[in-house]
Amino acid sequence: MNTTKLRRLLADLLRVNGRYLRDDVYRNTIRERLNNVGVGSHAIEAREVKRSPRAARPFRGLVETSLALSGIDRSGGGRHVNIVLGEVREGGAFAGIQTAVAVGVALASELGLPVRVVMVSWTTPGNSSKAAAAVLRERFPGVSFEVVAREEILRASFGEQDVWLATHWKTAHAIDVAATSGVIDRARVGYLVQDFEPGFSPWSTEFALARATYHAGFRLLVNSAPLQQYLAREEGVEVPDDATFSPHFDLDLLRRVAEERSHDATTRVLFYGRPSKHRNLFRIGVSALQIAVDRLEGSGLTLEFASAGEVHRDVDLGHGQKLESVGTLPWDDYFRFIASRNVVLSLQLSPHPSHPPFDGAISGAQVVTNEFADTRSALHPNIDAVAADPVSLGEAVARAVRRAAADGPTGYRDLAPGALGGSLDDAVAHLARQLQESA
Protein backbone atom coordinates (compact mmCIF):
# COMPACT_ATOMS: atom_id res chain seq x y z
CA MET A 1 0.00 0.00 0.00
CA ASN A 2 1.50 3.33 -1.03
CA THR A 3 1.98 6.26 1.34
CA THR A 4 -0.72 8.41 -0.27
CA LYS A 5 -3.36 5.70 0.03
CA LEU A 6 -2.38 4.98 3.63
CA ARG A 7 -2.61 8.67 4.47
CA ARG A 8 -6.11 8.86 2.97
CA LEU A 9 -7.25 5.78 4.89
CA LEU A 10 -5.99 7.21 8.18
CA ALA A 11 -7.71 10.53 7.44
CA ASP A 12 -10.97 8.70 6.68
CA LEU A 13 -10.63 6.71 9.90
CA LEU A 14 -10.18 9.89 11.92
CA ARG A 15 -13.26 11.45 10.32
CA VAL A 16 -15.36 8.34 10.93
CA ASN A 17 -14.27 8.10 14.57
CA GLY A 18 -14.87 11.80 15.11
CA ARG A 19 -18.37 11.60 13.69
CA TYR A 20 -19.07 8.46 15.73
CA LEU A 21 -18.26 10.39 18.90
CA ARG A 22 -20.22 13.53 17.96
CA ASP A 23 -23.26 12.29 16.02
CA ASP A 24 -25.90 10.24 17.89
CA VAL A 25 -27.79 9.28 14.73
CA TYR A 26 -24.62 8.10 12.98
CA ARG A 27 -23.50 6.18 16.09
CA ASN A 28 -26.85 4.39 16.45
CA THR A 29 -26.86 3.53 12.74
CA ILE A 30 -23.40 1.97 13.03
CA ARG A 31 -24.43 0.03 16.13
CA GLU A 32 -27.54 -1.24 14.34
CA ARG A 33 -25.43 -2.52 11.47
CA LEU A 34 -22.81 -4.08 13.73
CA ASN A 35 -25.53 -5.91 15.66
CA ASN A 36 -26.38 -7.83 12.50
CA VAL A 37 -22.99 -9.55 12.47
CA GLY A 38 -22.32 -12.27 14.99
CA VAL A 39 -19.19 -14.25 15.72
CA GLY A 40 -18.55 -16.95 13.14
CA SER A 41 -21.21 -15.74 10.70
CA HIS A 42 -19.00 -16.33 7.64
CA ALA A 43 -18.38 -19.95 8.60
CA ILE A 44 -22.08 -20.49 9.24
CA GLU A 45 -22.94 -18.94 5.87
CA ALA A 46 -20.46 -21.25 4.13
CA ARG A 47 -22.13 -24.28 5.71
CA GLU A 48 -25.56 -22.99 4.68
CA VAL A 49 -24.44 -22.60 1.07
CA LYS A 50 -23.03 -26.11 1.06
CA ARG A 51 -26.26 -27.58 2.44
CA SER A 52 -28.64 -25.56 0.26
CA PRO A 53 -30.14 -27.01 -2.92
CA ARG A 54 -28.73 -25.72 -6.18
CA ALA A 55 -31.97 -23.78 -6.81
CA ALA A 56 -31.39 -21.70 -3.66
CA ARG A 57 -27.81 -20.64 -4.33
CA PRO A 58 -28.53 -17.75 -6.75
CA PHE A 59 -30.22 -16.01 -3.80
CA ARG A 60 -27.04 -16.03 -1.73
CA GLY A 61 -26.09 -12.61 -0.41
CA LEU A 62 -29.29 -10.78 -1.26
CA VAL A 63 -29.75 -10.19 2.47
CA GLU A 64 -28.24 -11.90 5.51
CA THR A 65 -31.21 -14.26 5.89
CA SER A 66 -31.50 -15.45 2.27
CA LEU A 67 -30.19 -19.01 2.76
CA ALA A 68 -30.90 -19.35 6.49
CA LEU A 69 -33.58 -22.03 5.97
CA SER A 70 -32.72 -23.55 2.60
CA GLY A 71 -30.46 -26.28 3.97
CA ILE A 72 -32.65 -27.51 6.82
CA ASP A 73 -32.92 -31.19 7.71
CA ARG A 74 -36.54 -32.27 7.06
CA SER A 75 -36.28 -35.73 8.53
CA GLY A 76 -37.98 -34.82 11.81
CA GLY A 77 -41.00 -36.89 12.70
CA GLY A 78 -42.89 -34.41 14.88
CA ARG A 79 -44.84 -31.34 13.84
CA HIS A 80 -44.30 -27.81 15.13
CA VAL A 81 -45.40 -24.28 14.51
CA ASN A 82 -42.10 -22.61 13.65
CA ILE A 83 -42.22 -18.91 14.54
CA VAL A 84 -39.47 -17.38 12.43
CA LEU A 85 -38.00 -14.23 13.99
CA GLY A 86 -34.90 -12.15 13.51
CA GLU A 87 -33.55 -12.37 17.03
CA VAL A 88 -34.97 -12.30 20.55
CA ARG A 89 -32.72 -10.68 23.12
CA GLU A 90 -33.04 -8.96 26.47
CA GLY A 91 -33.77 -5.27 25.95
CA GLY A 92 -34.57 -5.81 22.26
CA ALA A 93 -37.99 -7.47 22.37
CA PHE A 94 -40.23 -4.62 21.28
CA ALA A 95 -43.97 -4.67 20.60
CA GLY A 96 -43.52 -6.20 17.14
CA ILE A 97 -41.74 -9.27 18.51
CA GLN A 98 -44.20 -9.51 21.38
CA THR A 99 -47.10 -9.58 18.91
CA ALA A 100 -45.35 -12.04 16.60
CA VAL A 101 -44.79 -14.53 19.39
CA ALA A 102 -48.35 -14.03 20.69
CA VAL A 103 -49.69 -14.83 17.21
CA GLY A 104 -47.45 -17.89 16.91
CA VAL A 105 -48.47 -19.20 20.32
CA ALA A 106 -52.16 -18.69 19.51
CA LEU A 107 -51.74 -20.39 16.12
CA ALA A 108 -50.01 -23.36 17.74
CA SER A 109 -52.88 -23.62 20.23
CA GLU A 110 -55.45 -23.58 17.41
CA LEU A 111 -53.59 -26.32 15.55
CA GLY A 112 -52.74 -28.33 18.66
CA LEU A 113 -48.99 -28.19 17.94
CA PRO A 114 -45.91 -27.32 20.02
CA VAL A 115 -44.13 -24.01 19.50
CA ARG A 116 -40.62 -23.58 18.17
CA VAL A 117 -38.91 -20.20 17.68
CA VAL A 118 -36.35 -20.04 14.88
CA MET A 119 -34.04 -17.00 14.88
CA VAL A 120 -32.60 -16.28 11.43
CA SER A 121 -30.56 -13.14 12.14
CA TRP A 122 -26.92 -13.48 13.15
CA THR A 123 -26.77 -13.98 16.90
CA THR A 124 -25.46 -10.85 18.60
CA PRO A 125 -22.62 -11.15 21.13
CA GLY A 126 -23.82 -12.32 24.52
CA ASN A 127 -27.06 -13.81 23.24
CA SER A 128 -27.96 -17.48 22.74
CA SER A 129 -30.96 -19.73 22.25
CA LYS A 130 -30.97 -20.32 26.02
CA ALA A 131 -31.01 -16.58 26.77
CA ALA A 132 -33.73 -15.98 24.18
CA ALA A 133 -35.85 -18.77 25.67
CA ALA A 134 -35.54 -17.13 29.09
CA VAL A 135 -36.81 -13.82 27.69
CA LEU A 136 -39.75 -15.59 26.02
CA ARG A 137 -40.67 -17.54 29.17
CA GLU A 138 -40.70 -14.30 31.14
CA ARG A 139 -43.01 -12.66 28.59
CA PHE A 140 -45.20 -15.74 28.09
CA PRO A 141 -45.36 -17.61 31.39
CA GLY A 142 -46.64 -21.14 31.13
CA VAL A 143 -45.65 -21.55 27.46
CA SER A 144 -42.94 -24.07 26.62
CA PHE A 145 -40.51 -22.72 24.01
CA GLU A 146 -37.92 -24.56 21.99
CA VAL A 147 -35.56 -21.94 20.51
CA VAL A 148 -33.20 -22.49 17.60
CA ALA A 149 -30.56 -19.81 16.98
CA ARG A 150 -29.15 -19.15 13.50
CA GLU A 151 -25.98 -21.14 14.16
CA GLU A 152 -28.09 -24.13 15.31
CA ILE A 153 -30.51 -24.31 12.36
CA LEU A 154 -28.49 -26.83 10.36
CA ARG A 155 -28.20 -29.10 13.43
CA ALA A 156 -31.94 -28.99 14.14
CA SER A 157 -34.50 -31.37 12.68
CA PHE A 158 -37.66 -30.07 10.99
CA GLY A 159 -40.66 -31.95 9.63
CA GLU A 160 -42.33 -31.79 6.23
CA GLN A 161 -45.65 -31.27 8.03
CA ASP A 162 -44.39 -28.30 10.05
CA VAL A 163 -46.32 -25.03 9.90
CA TRP A 164 -44.23 -21.88 9.41
CA LEU A 165 -45.00 -18.34 10.51
CA ALA A 166 -43.08 -15.47 8.91
CA THR A 167 -43.03 -12.36 11.09
CA HIS A 168 -40.92 -9.78 9.20
CA TRP A 169 -40.02 -9.42 5.54
CA LYS A 170 -36.53 -10.87 6.02
CA THR A 171 -38.01 -13.97 7.64
CA ALA A 172 -40.61 -14.22 4.85
CA HIS A 173 -37.82 -13.89 2.29
CA ALA A 174 -35.87 -16.76 3.90
CA ILE A 175 -38.99 -18.95 3.80
CA ASP A 176 -39.71 -17.87 0.22
CA VAL A 177 -36.22 -18.92 -0.92
CA ALA A 178 -36.63 -22.27 0.86
CA ALA A 179 -40.07 -22.72 -0.73
CA THR A 180 -38.74 -21.82 -4.19
CA SER A 181 -36.11 -24.52 -3.68
CA GLY A 182 -38.69 -27.13 -2.69
CA VAL A 183 -37.60 -27.27 0.95
CA ILE A 184 -40.73 -25.74 2.54
CA ASP A 185 -44.32 -26.11 1.36
CA ARG A 186 -45.87 -22.68 0.65
CA ALA A 187 -49.27 -24.04 1.62
CA ARG A 188 -47.98 -24.40 5.18
CA VAL A 189 -46.79 -20.80 5.58
CA GLY A 190 -48.59 -17.96 7.34
CA TYR A 191 -47.18 -14.44 7.10
CA LEU A 192 -47.80 -11.93 9.86
CA VAL A 193 -47.53 -8.47 8.26
CA GLN A 194 -47.05 -5.77 10.89
CA ASP A 195 -46.08 -2.79 8.74
CA PHE A 196 -45.36 -1.76 5.18
CA GLU A 197 -41.76 -2.86 5.53
CA PRO A 198 -40.47 -1.92 2.03
CA GLY A 199 -40.55 1.63 3.36
CA PHE A 200 -37.86 0.72 5.89
CA SER A 201 -35.35 0.44 3.00
CA PRO A 202 -36.60 2.80 0.29
CA TRP A 203 -35.72 2.39 -3.40
CA SER A 204 -33.23 -0.45 -3.04
CA THR A 205 -32.73 -4.20 -3.37
CA GLU A 206 -34.24 -4.54 0.10
CA PHE A 207 -37.27 -2.49 -0.96
CA ALA A 208 -37.91 -4.79 -3.94
CA LEU A 209 -37.39 -7.99 -1.93
CA ALA A 210 -39.69 -6.81 0.84
CA ARG A 211 -42.46 -6.02 -1.66
CA ALA A 212 -42.01 -9.42 -3.27
CA THR A 213 -42.81 -11.19 0.00
CA TYR A 214 -46.39 -9.85 -0.13
CA HIS A 215 -46.85 -11.72 -3.42
CA ALA A 216 -45.09 -14.97 -2.41
CA GLY A 217 -48.33 -16.94 -2.03
CA PHE A 218 -48.33 -17.12 1.76
CA ARG A 219 -51.45 -16.75 3.88
CA LEU A 220 -51.37 -13.19 5.18
CA LEU A 221 -52.41 -12.06 8.64
CA VAL A 222 -52.37 -8.27 8.98
CA ASN A 223 -51.81 -6.23 12.11
CA SER A 224 -54.32 -3.33 11.91
CA ALA A 225 -57.01 -2.14 9.55
CA PRO A 226 -54.99 0.92 8.40
CA LEU A 227 -52.23 -1.39 7.16
CA GLN A 228 -54.79 -3.68 5.51
CA GLN A 229 -56.18 -0.69 3.60
CA TYR A 230 -52.71 0.49 2.59
CA LEU A 231 -51.71 -2.95 1.24
CA ALA A 232 -54.86 -3.05 -0.87
CA ARG A 233 -54.25 0.43 -2.25
CA GLU A 234 -50.48 0.24 -2.85
CA GLU A 235 -49.90 -3.45 -3.60
CA GLY A 236 -53.27 -4.73 -4.79
CA VAL A 237 -53.12 -7.29 -1.97
CA GLU A 238 -56.63 -7.87 -0.65
CA VAL A 239 -56.61 -9.24 2.88
CA PRO A 240 -60.07 -10.10 4.26
CA ASP A 241 -61.34 -8.46 7.43
CA ASP A 242 -61.32 -11.91 9.05
CA ALA A 243 -57.51 -11.96 8.69
CA THR A 244 -57.00 -8.44 10.08
CA PHE A 245 -56.66 -7.76 13.78
CA SER A 246 -56.21 -4.81 16.07
CA PRO A 247 -52.77 -4.39 17.69
CA HIS A 248 -52.65 -5.98 21.11
CA PHE A 249 -52.54 -3.58 24.03
CA ASP A 250 -52.19 -4.74 27.62
CA LEU A 251 -55.37 -3.02 28.78
CA ASP A 252 -55.10 -4.16 32.39
CA LEU A 253 -51.63 -2.68 32.56
CA LEU A 254 -52.77 0.53 30.85
CA ARG A 255 -55.61 0.84 33.39
CA ARG A 256 -53.01 0.72 36.15
CA VAL A 257 -50.91 3.33 34.32
CA ALA A 258 -54.01 5.56 34.08
CA GLU A 259 -54.60 5.19 37.81
CA GLU A 260 -50.99 6.19 38.55
CA ARG A 261 -51.14 9.40 36.52
CA SER A 262 -51.52 12.65 38.44
CA HIS A 263 -52.10 16.33 37.72
CA ASP A 264 -48.76 17.85 38.75
CA ALA A 265 -47.39 21.38 38.67
CA THR A 266 -44.78 20.18 36.15
CA THR A 267 -46.03 19.03 32.74
CA ARG A 268 -43.78 16.23 31.53
CA VAL A 269 -43.42 15.39 27.84
CA LEU A 270 -42.25 12.03 26.50
CA PHE A 271 -40.72 11.80 23.02
CA TYR A 272 -40.48 8.28 21.61
CA GLY A 273 -37.12 8.91 19.97
CA ARG A 274 -35.11 6.30 18.05
CA PRO A 275 -32.39 8.00 15.98
CA SER A 276 -31.40 4.83 14.10
CA LYS A 277 -34.98 4.08 12.96
CA HIS A 278 -35.57 6.55 10.16
CA ARG A 279 -39.31 5.94 10.11
CA ASN A 280 -39.53 7.38 13.65
CA LEU A 281 -38.50 10.82 12.30
CA PHE A 282 -36.14 11.63 15.15
CA ARG A 283 -34.77 14.89 13.76
CA ILE A 284 -38.24 16.17 12.84
CA GLY A 285 -39.36 15.32 16.36
CA VAL A 286 -36.51 17.30 17.92
CA SER A 287 -37.28 20.25 15.67
CA ALA A 288 -40.97 20.03 16.64
CA LEU A 289 -40.09 20.06 20.35
CA GLN A 290 -37.92 23.13 19.84
CA ILE A 291 -40.86 24.86 18.13
CA ALA A 292 -43.20 23.79 20.93
CA VAL A 293 -40.83 25.21 23.54
CA ASP A 294 -40.68 28.46 21.60
CA ARG A 295 -44.49 28.63 21.38
CA LEU A 296 -44.80 27.98 25.13
CA GLU A 297 -42.25 30.60 26.15
CA GLY A 298 -43.89 33.07 28.51
CA SER A 299 -46.77 30.71 29.35
CA GLY A 300 -45.59 30.34 32.94
CA LEU A 301 -45.73 26.54 32.66
CA THR A 302 -43.08 24.33 34.23
CA LEU A 303 -41.97 21.78 31.65
CA GLU A 304 -39.79 18.69 31.48
CA PHE A 305 -38.82 16.70 28.37
CA ALA A 306 -37.51 13.14 28.11
CA SER A 307 -36.79 10.77 25.25
CA ALA A 308 -37.18 6.98 25.45
CA GLY A 309 -36.56 4.23 22.90
CA GLU A 310 -32.86 4.58 22.17
CA VAL A 311 -29.85 6.19 23.80
CA HIS A 312 -28.71 9.55 22.40
CA ARG A 313 -27.08 12.70 23.71
CA ASP A 314 -29.28 15.16 25.57
CA VAL A 315 -30.57 17.88 23.24
CA ASP A 316 -30.85 21.61 23.93
CA LEU A 317 -34.43 22.64 23.09
CA GLY A 318 -33.90 26.33 23.76
CA HIS A 319 -35.24 28.67 26.44
CA GLY A 320 -33.47 26.65 29.13
CA GLN A 321 -35.23 23.38 28.24
CA LYS A 322 -33.41 20.12 27.58
CA LEU A 323 -34.48 16.78 26.08
CA GLU A 324 -32.98 14.12 28.34
CA SER A 325 -32.49 10.61 26.98
CA VAL A 326 -33.38 7.62 29.17
CA GLY A 327 -32.65 5.16 26.36
CA THR A 328 -34.25 1.74 25.98
CA LEU A 329 -36.32 0.73 29.00
CA PRO A 330 -37.27 -2.79 30.10
CA TRP A 331 -40.94 -3.62 29.62
CA ASP A 332 -42.15 -2.89 33.16
CA ASP A 333 -39.94 0.17 33.57
CA TYR A 334 -41.34 1.63 30.34
CA PHE A 335 -44.91 1.52 31.64
CA ARG A 336 -43.89 2.94 35.00
CA PHE A 337 -42.13 5.76 33.19
CA ILE A 338 -45.00 6.72 30.89
CA ALA A 339 -47.30 7.07 33.90
CA SER A 340 -45.35 10.22 34.79
CA ARG A 341 -45.69 11.72 31.29
CA ASN A 342 -49.04 13.31 30.46
CA VAL A 343 -47.96 14.44 26.97
CA VAL A 344 -46.48 12.07 24.37
CA LEU A 345 -44.89 12.82 21.00
CA SER A 346 -44.51 9.60 18.98
CA LEU A 347 -43.84 9.59 15.25
CA GLN A 348 -43.86 6.85 12.64
CA LEU A 349 -43.83 7.38 8.89
CA SER A 350 -45.67 4.19 7.96
CA PRO A 351 -49.30 3.00 7.84
CA HIS A 352 -49.13 0.76 10.89
CA PRO A 353 -50.34 2.56 14.02
CA SER A 354 -47.43 1.97 16.39
CA HIS A 355 -47.90 1.13 20.06
CA PRO A 356 -46.50 4.15 21.96
CA PRO A 357 -49.22 6.61 20.84
CA PHE A 358 -51.95 4.23 21.99
CA ASP A 359 -50.12 3.27 25.20
CA GLY A 360 -50.19 6.96 26.04
CA ALA A 361 -53.69 7.79 24.78
CA ILE A 362 -55.49 4.81 26.29
CA SER A 363 -53.87 5.46 29.68
CA GLY A 364 -54.94 9.12 29.70
CA ALA A 365 -52.12 11.15 28.12
CA GLN A 366 -52.42 13.78 25.40
CA VAL A 367 -50.66 12.33 22.33
CA VAL A 368 -49.29 13.92 19.17
CA THR A 369 -48.38 11.81 16.15
CA ASN A 370 -48.05 12.25 12.40
CA GLU A 371 -50.79 11.54 9.90
CA PHE A 372 -49.97 8.99 7.19
CA ALA A 373 -52.05 8.36 4.07
CA ASP A 374 -55.24 9.33 5.91
CA THR A 375 -54.96 6.29 8.20
CA ARG A 376 -54.76 7.95 11.65
CA SER A 377 -57.38 10.67 11.98
CA ALA A 378 -60.10 10.03 14.58
CA LEU A 379 -58.62 6.76 15.82
CA HIS A 380 -58.69 7.96 19.45
CA PRO A 381 -59.93 11.16 21.13
CA ASN A 382 -56.58 11.66 22.91
CA ILE A 383 -54.52 11.46 19.70
CA ASP A 384 -53.89 14.52 17.55
CA ALA A 385 -52.60 13.33 14.15
CA VAL A 386 -51.15 16.18 12.10
CA ALA A 387 -48.92 16.66 9.08
CA ALA A 388 -45.38 15.33 9.46
CA ASP A 389 -43.63 18.69 9.43
CA PRO A 390 -41.91 20.41 12.37
CA VAL A 391 -44.29 23.40 12.59
CA SER A 392 -47.52 21.35 12.54
CA LEU A 393 -46.13 18.88 15.06
CA GLY A 394 -44.59 21.55 17.27
CA GLU A 395 -47.81 23.53 17.48
CA ALA A 396 -49.73 20.33 18.23
CA VAL A 397 -47.33 19.54 21.08
CA ALA A 398 -47.81 23.05 22.48
CA ARG A 399 -51.60 22.55 22.36
CA ALA A 400 -51.29 19.18 24.09
CA VAL A 401 -49.09 20.68 26.83
CA ARG A 402 -51.62 23.43 27.50
CA ARG A 403 -54.48 20.89 27.70
CA ALA A 404 -52.54 18.59 30.02
CA ALA A 405 -51.42 21.48 32.23
CA ALA A 406 -54.97 22.82 32.54
CA ASP A 407 -56.95 19.59 32.85
CA GLY A 408 -54.51 16.85 33.85
CA PRO A 409 -54.79 13.30 32.53
CA THR A 410 -58.11 12.21 31.01
CA GLY A 411 -58.24 8.86 32.75
CA TYR A 412 -58.47 5.48 31.03
CA ARG A 413 -59.98 5.65 27.52
CA ASP A 414 -60.21 2.47 25.50
CA LEU A 415 -60.40 2.32 21.72
CA ALA A 416 -63.80 2.17 20.03
CA PRO A 417 -64.67 -1.45 19.11
CA GLY A 418 -63.20 -2.37 15.73
CA ALA A 419 -61.33 0.93 15.32
CA LEU A 420 -58.10 -0.87 14.36
CA GLY A 421 -59.43 -4.26 13.30
CA GLY A 422 -60.96 -7.39 14.74
CA SER A 423 -59.77 -9.62 17.55
CA LEU A 424 -56.44 -11.41 17.44
CA ASP A 425 -58.02 -14.74 18.41
CA ASP A 426 -60.57 -14.58 15.58
CA ALA A 427 -57.90 -13.66 13.02
CA VAL A 428 -55.59 -16.47 14.14
CA ALA A 429 -58.48 -18.96 14.03
CA HIS A 430 -59.14 -17.81 10.45
CA LEU A 431 -55.45 -18.32 9.54
CA ALA A 432 -55.46 -21.78 11.13
CA ARG A 433 -58.47 -22.81 9.03
CA GLN A 434 -56.80 -21.47 5.87
CA LEU A 435 -53.59 -23.38 6.54
CA GLN A 436 -55.45 -26.61 7.30
CA GLU A 437 -57.54 -26.32 4.13
CA SER A 438 -54.65 -25.42 1.81
CA ALA A 439 -52.32 -28.07 3.26
Automatic annotation (TrEMBL):
The UniProt entry, under InterPro entries, shows: WsaF_C, WsaF_N
Taxonomically, the superkingdom here is Bacteria
Q: Where is the WsaF C-terminal domain?
A: 268-397
Q: Where is each WsaF N-terminal domain found? A: 81-216
A Pfam match? WsaF_C
Q: What is this protein called?
A: Glycosyltransferase involved in cell wall biosynthesis
Can you name the source organism? Answer: Frondihabitans peucedani
